Amino acid sequence: MTNGFKVIGLSVRTTNKDAQAMQDLGKLWGQFFAENVMEKIPNKASGEIYAIYTDYKSDYTEEYTTIIGVPVTTLNEVPEGLTGREFGPEQFQKFTAKGEMPAAVGNTWMEIWQKDKELNRKYTYDYEVYGAKSQQGANSEVAIFIATK
After folding, report:
1. CATH no. of 5-147
2. Geometric angle at alpha carbon 5, from 111 and 138, rounded to 5°
3. Domain boundaries in the chain?
4. What's the alpha-carbon Rg for the chain, to the nearest Å?
5. Which residue, 35, 83, 111, 137, is most buried by CB atoms nearer than 10 A?
6. Which residues of 36-45 are buried (b: 16+ CB within 10 A; e: fewer)?
7. Which residue numbers delimit the AraC effector-binding domain (predicted)?
8. How far apart are the C-alpha atoms of 44 and 146, rounded to whole Å?
9. Are the C-beta atoms of residues 52 and 64 closer than 8 Å to each other?
10. Per-residue burial over 104-135, b = 16 or more CB atoms within 10 Å of its CB, e = otherwise
11. CA-closest candidate to residue 64, choices 119, 125, 145
C-alpha cells in the first residue's frame, strides 16, 4: 500500500493506439526539460520525477492522461500552465525497468500489458519514478508501480 502523493507537472491526454503515446509522451518529456519545468515547481517533496498515468477511459487500449511532474508537499501554489493533482492511497505491484532509457521502460510496459489480466489492474493510476539511478546509461533503473485490486 502506498500512501498516495501530490504532484505538479505537465499533462497530456493520449492513447497507445497507432503509437500516439510514443509521440505525445516524447513531446511532453521534451517540453518538461526544454522549459525547465522542474525549476518552476514550488514545494518539491523530492528531486525525483514522476510520470503518472491516470484518468483511464477503460484500460491501456483506450485514452488516458499522463502527467510528468514532481511530488510536492502542497498544491497551494500551482504555477500557470502546470497541472496539480492529488493521488490517493493504492495497492501497487512494483516493476523495475533496467537498462538504456527510454527503451527499458517501454519494454517493461510491454511485459505489463501482456500480463494485464493476471495483474488484476485497477486502472486508477500507475506511475514511474525517475530517481538518481534513472540516468546511468545501460545501468539505469526506473521503478514502475501498477495499481492492483
Report:
1. 3.20.80.10
2. 40
3. 5-147
4. 15
5. 83
6. ebeeebeeee
7. 1-149
8. 23
9. no
10. bbeebbeebeeeeeebebebebbbbbbeeebe
11. 125
Q: For residue 82, how far is the Cα from the chain centroid? A: 15
Owner of C-alpha cell 538518481: 132
CA dist 79 → 8, 9, 36, 120 (Å)? 9, 9, 13, 36
Cα-to-chain-centroid distance, residue 145: 9
Of 100, 114, 84, nearest to 7 by C-alpha is 84
- pLDDT means per 10 residues, the chain with 149 residues, are 90 95 95 97 97 97 97 98 97 97 94 94 97 95 97
Residue type, 115: K
3-state secondary structure the chain: CECCEEEEEEEEEECCHHHHHHHHHHHHHHHHHHCCHHHHCCCECCCCEEEEEECCCCCCCCCEEEEEEEEECCCCCCCCCCEEEEECCECEEEEEEECCCCHHHHHHHHHHHHCHHHHCECCCEEEEEECHHHHCHHHCEEEEEEEEC
